[in-house]
C-alpha cells in the first residue's frame, strides 16, 4: 500500500461500538473482520466486501460467560479463537484458557486449558490448524484447533528472563518468534524457533538492548528523559512482516519499534501522537501497530484519534488518516484487498 501517493485511502464503512476495541483480526479470505471489545464483552463481525455489519452470519455476539479481550481468525470462516476478558463479573474459572468459538451458533466448540496466568497473545499458523498462545505465567504453548486436551508442546523461558513472553508465527508458518525481557531491564531477547522442531530450542537468539532502543526513540523526537523511560516500556505485541526481514513490536507508553529480523538491531521507532494529555510518547497505553501485507508500510494508532502511516524502510511518515474521535487502540490490514481497519470505540474500514 502506497500511502505517499494521492488520493490515498478513504474511510468506507463505520461500525459503531460502545466500548474501546481491544483486538482486530481479519479472515485470510479478506471477507470478514472480527472486532473484540473487552469492556462490554462483545465480538462484532464486519463484512469487508459489502461494508457494514455482516449479514451472512451474526453481526454481534455477547460473550457474557467468559468475556473477550483478544480475538484471532482461524482458517474456518465461521470460527475464531479468543482469550477471555478480565472484567468484573467474568468467572475466574476458565479465565486463563483459549476458547474456540463457532460464530454460526455462538457455541464454544473447544476449550484449551493449561496456562496458569492471563493470556496476552494468540498467533494462528498460516499453514495449518496449530496456534501459539503466550501468557503472563511465563510460558508459550502450542495447540491444535482440532484437538481438545493438553497442548502439543510447552516452551518454558530460561531463568535469565523476566516478565511475560510474546509469541508469533512468521508468514510461512515454518518459524515462530518468542520475545522475553532480559533481567535487570537491559532489553529484550527474541528467540526464533523451527516450528517443526521447536523442542531442540531456538536456532537464533537476538538481543535487543535497552541502549539501542533508547537511541532510536530519541531519533524519533522524544526528550532524553522520555527516551530513557520508553526504552524500558513493556512489549505488548510482536509481528513479522511478510518477508521476515523486519519484526514489529508494540509497547506500552505509546511506542512501537521495527527490528531487523536477522540481526535484532532497532531500525526505527514510532511514537504515538498525543491526545489531550501531553507531548509525544506521553501515553501510558500500548501502541497499536501492524505491517501492511506488501511490507511497504507500518500503520500506527495514535492517542489523538489519528492513524499514522509510515514507510517501513525509511521510518518516515507518509500520511496521517483522520476520522476517529478517540484513541485508536487497534489496527489491522486486510490480507487480500487494499483495505485497512482502525478502531477506537467504533471501527472504520479504509479503502484505496
Describe the structure.
This protein has 352 residues and is mainly beta. Helix content is 5%, strand content 44%. The chain contains two helices and 28 strands. The strands form seven sheets. A four-stranded antiparallel beta sheet has the order 1-28-27-26, with no helix packed on it. Helix 1 packs across helix 2. The longest helix has 10 residues. The mean pLDDT is 91.
Strand content: 35-45%
Strands side by side in the biggest sheet: 1-28-27-26
**Given the structure, what is the number of helices?**
2
| N-to-C CA distance | 8 Å
How does the helix and strand content classify structurally? mainly beta
Q: What sequence of helices (H) and strands (E) makes up the elements? A: EEEEEEEEEEEEEEEEEHHEEEEEEEEEEE
Topology at a glance:
Layout: E1 10-15, E2 23-26, E3 32-37, E4 42-47, E5 60-62, E6 70-73, E7 79-83, E8 98-102, E9 107-112, E10 119-124, E11 130-135, E12 139-144, E13 153-156, E14 161-169, E15 175-182, E16 187-194, E17 204-209, H1 210-219, H2 224-230, E18 235-240, E19 246-251, E20 255-260, E21 266-271, E22 289-291, E23 297-301, E24 307-311, E25 317-321, E26 330-333, E27 339-343, E28 347-351
Antiparallel strand pairs: 1-28, 2-3, 3-4, 4-5, 6-7, 7-8, 8-9, 10-11, 11-12, 12-13, 14-15, 15-16, 16-17, 18-19, 19-20, 20-21, 22-23, 23-24, 24-25, 26-27, 27-28
Helix pairs in contact: 1-2
